[in-house]
Protein 1
Amino acid sequence: DIRDRLVALRAELLRRGERTAGDVWGTLGQILANAAMLSVFWLFLLLYRRVVYDDLRRMASLSAAFGIVIVGAFIMWRFINQGPELIPIPFAAMLLTVLISGRVAMVGAMVLAVLLGTQAAYGGQDALYIALLGGVAATLGVRTIRRRSQLLVASGVVAAAFALAALTVGLRNGWGVGQMGVTTLRGLANALVSGAIVTIALPVFEAAAQVTTDLTLLELSDPNQPLLRRLATEAPGTYAHSIAMANLCEAACNAIGASGLLARVGCYYHDIGKLRRPQFFVENQGHGANPHAQLKP
């Protein structure tokens, strides 16, 4: 009976990939496998997002996000719980979606899910499936974000994805309702904490990568911005012209799939140089005197 148990244990360890635990060559093979998996993401950037790949600040920010997820996964596994639904991939997926793009974030989430979910510590394809579903859901939840409160909605989408993962894995493996519920609660905790950390970390990563996100553009479009308030009071004609131009440019950009928000904010600020001498421009003169009439040819 003891021998049968040991044989079964050995078979399970082989299935999990722990056959070479502590072996130098086995460790080297694992390192190379992890490096090959990470290279998929960097190769994707090199071929399809060269602007990001050539920017050292953005690459450093991406590396930092990956590092946070890997270290966070180890901390969760070592000190809290070994459940794959606690791997903080949703954090990186949300952050990269807002910071760069949804496509980059989705590929990154997939790579992290394969990298971490297939580790022997998590043991099996169920961990890969759960981590992958949570990461992809995070990218879809923040695909278009115009308010910081939308991160809370994204957290709800991630929690729903983890609930679906718990249900499907539980039905397949014969889990009880209690075990499914615990898995769902852990996924909910991951989703909420990831959304909260993204809210805190986003300004830091924005400054580090020198990227202007849609959230920052929305803040710049606030009429209470000091420069826009000066424009409205000191050069009202120019301000009205900028608003009209912003409406036209935003509609044009939206029609061709460009960034309407970026065009709108650019239009708001494109004539701020006129604040130096507002009356020298016809839209601010009204019925007053034209200063140009007093100048020599």
Note: The mean pLDDT is 88.
Protein 2
Amino acid sequence: FLAALLSLGFGIPLAYVLARGFAGQQFVESLVDLPLVVPHSVAGILILFGFGSGGAFPRISVLGTMLGMVLAMMFVAAPYAVNTTREAFEAIGDSLLYSSRIHGASQWQTFRRVTAPLAIGGMLTGWDVG
């Protein structure tokens, strides 16, 4: 539950930014999709190298803890949460967002009143898959 909640908490803003486009987007998308192509055993070995004794961060204890389990589950769930939410954001027509903005809504109001309600299905799918 915590992993899915945190994946969406970090994934919704990232998906929104990815749906709008920016310089270097392909690099960020490949980082998001990395857990899909890296075998889980390789990810476990990287965690051991990073957080095990003699690793890069030996003072942060994640092995066998709740934090470690949540991070491992987030590693697996995040691509699904980000990609389904990004696709939901991309499916919203620009004319709807433009009409909201032209009628005086701020960018946050447009997100809260137009974008988020229309993309809630993708957000819930990302939550469910994660």
Note: The radius of gyration is 18 Å.
